[in-house]
Amino acid sequence: MSTSFSNPDYSAKSYLDHRPRYPQQLYQTILDFHNTPSTTADITDYPTPQTKLALDLGCGPGIATSELVPHFEKVVAVDESEPMIQIASGHLPHVDCRVGSATRIPIESGTVDLITVATAAHWFPDQWWEEASRVLKPGGTVAVWTVSHQMMIEPSHPKTREFNELQVRLVEAFRTYLTAGNQYVIDMYDTLPLPSAELRFGPLQRIVWNREKVDDLKMFMGSKFNIDTLRKRLHTYSPIYRWRTDNPTKKDTEDDPVEHMFSNLKKISGWDDSTEFTAGHPLALIMIKKLG
Asked: Which residues form the Methyltransferase type domain (predicted)?
């Protein structure tokens, strides 16, 4: 996983407060996939999908975890960052929160019905799929998703094109601080390593919403922002966090790419710090089931 999130200077609370909430339609899409009995002969021993145990892996502060609670008898949240687990435990009293990694999941083999990975799979080493296969029941589901680093403004806004162009430039400004994991996110998980044939997963389903333009408002995750609240969200992103750590005398000045973007945004839009606008993210989802 990203070492940024385990750094004691990284604020897990800020991550919880300022990262986007995923739309209900996303969770419903995952539940529909999981609860639909497979017709594959290899899993005829499990004709009815089960809802006993869900695992949110790389859970962070538990943004997605809470959405699993109404649908499963038990939910376990795992992250290798102790600060993240402390925050998750504090607001998820009905969830078993544990410190652990994607390659050493602290769960008994063959017990998990659903694994969710919310904007975290890009930090996992490729062999995490072996561990996912170990803990899953035959017929169990893995659902991984990510939001893009690049935000988009609501399509009806007159400054949509200008805002989106500045977001593209911002990603480029932090190019040297991008890791392989960040690149998977930029690619919307098109290049994310998938399980080998030896692990016996079924065919995957991939869905991408709003990749290049906003074509599904239900999946847009639009939130109201002003410049200050957008700044706080951007500061939670790992490349920006790494740049700020390496450039303490430049951060929050005009030499800071985030502040430079906001300066340009104000010039072309006429906005000030209090102007409100709606912005959201593209979203990519991959779902796959373990065969028997």
From this structure: 55-143
